Amino acid sequence: MSDTVKKLSFWQLVKGNIRNYSMFLMLAVIVAGFAILTGGVNINSRNVTNIFIQNSYILVLAVGMVLVIIIGNIDLSVGSVAAFTGALGAMIYNTGLGILPTILLTMLIGAAIGCFLGYFVAFIKIPAFIVTLAGMLLFRGLTYIITNVTPVSLRDDSFRNIASGSISFSFLEVGGLHLFPLLLGAAIMVVYIAYAFWDRKNKMKNHFHVLPMQYFILKLILLSLVVLVLCYKFADYRGLPTVVMVLGITVAVFVFVTQNTVFGRYIYAVGGNSRSAKLSGINSEMVTFFVHVNMGMIAGLSGIVFTAYMNSALPQAGNLFELDAIAACFIGGASASGGIGTIMGAITGGLVMGVINNGMSLMNIGADWQYVVKASVLLLAVWYDIYTRKKAGLA
Amino acid sequence: MSTNILEVQDLTKTFPGVKALDNVNFKVKKGEIHCLCGENGAGKSTLMNVVSGVYPHDSYTGKVIFHGKETRYKTVKDSEKDRLAIIHQELALSPYLPIFENIFLGHIKTKAGIIHWDRLIIDSRPYLKRVGLDEDPETIVSKLGVGKQQLVEIAKALSKNVELLILDEPTSSLNDDESDKLLDLILELKKEGITCIMISHKLNEVLKIADTITILRDGMSIDSYDTTETEVTEDLIIKGMVGRDMTHRFPEKTAVVGETIMEVEDWTVFHPEYHSRKVVDNVSFNLKKGEILAFCGPMGAGRTELMMSLFGKAYGSASTGTLKIRGQEHDFKNPMEAIRNGLGYVSEDRKDLGLILIQDVKTNISNSSLSKLSRFGVVNKDQEIIEAENYRKSLNIKTPGIEQMVRNLSGGNQQKVVLSRCLLADPEIFIVDEPTRGIDVGAKYEIYTILNDLAAQGKSIIMISSELPEAIGMADRIYVMNEGEIRGVLDRDEASQEKIMQIALRSR
Question: Which of A279, A290, A391 is most worth mutating to test chain B (most B CB atoms within 10 A of its CB)?
Answer without folding.
Answer: A279
